[in-house]
Amino acid sequence: MVITKNMAKIELNKVCVDFPIYTTGSSRSLKNRLVQVATGGKLGTDVAGRIVVRALNDLNFTLHDGDRVALLGHNGAGKSTLLRVLNQVYEPSTGAVQVTGEIGSLIDISLGIDPEATGRENIYIRGGLLGMKRKQITHHLEEIIEFSQLGEFIDMPLRTYSAGMHMRLAFTVSTVVKPNILLMDEWLSVGDEDFQQKAEVRMKNLVKASNILVIATHSKELILKMCNRVIWIEHGEVKLDGNPEQIVDLYFNEQIIVNEE
Hints:
Elements: E1 9-20, H1 28-39, E2 42-45, E3 51-63, E4 68-72, H2 79-86, E5 94-100, E6 103-105, H3 119-129, H4 134-148, H5 163-174, E7 181-185, H6 193-209, E8 212-216, H7 220-226, E9 229-234, E10 237-242, H8 244-260
Parallel strand pairs: 4-8, 4-9, 6-7, 7-8
Antiparallel strand pairs: 1-3, 1-5, 2-3, 9-10
């Protein structure tokens, strides 16, 4: 099949991600047990004999144009690790990831923000980290300033901003480009009520413009409203992959049983 420039595809083939644990002495057992509980991963050893936590194990799936995928699973199940693998932040320890299309990430939207730099300077810093060229950032500069509603504060150091102003700027810069593949760790909701309404519209337009959406979320309502596919991750492995209605019911019923126990 020939994939055109406007198409997007993600393919994972036997992907595993291991994190080495560098511990020695009598505290090793306790530390390793704590790591296992915290990550939901499985303890083992690699080819060099190092103790590792396997955060993702033997993932095999393909995402195509039109997929709106929810990653579902308890905290520490491996959802965030998977998102970072898709975003090419983490490399698989074994296996392969093939990505066709431009990736946009709304994970850690404040990453790279410099509190001593002005808002205007931070637009260029954050935009550069997102892979935008300076000319491209300049083209969107006035749009970003207007949408973020920062006014004269745009030329003030970020350390003078309130938390809400900081998030408005980070959100606006991070959502200025419409990628083929959009990765999200929960749905973003930032600012006061008026700005949240603007942000909601902007988010929906961003999702609509994307070929593939992958979002880690615990929101049943969001999954049923936005997604056509759910991948349930448990202890770093795919437990179920398929229809949102069926998997959501199974997942949330299981959570109720676990909580009751």
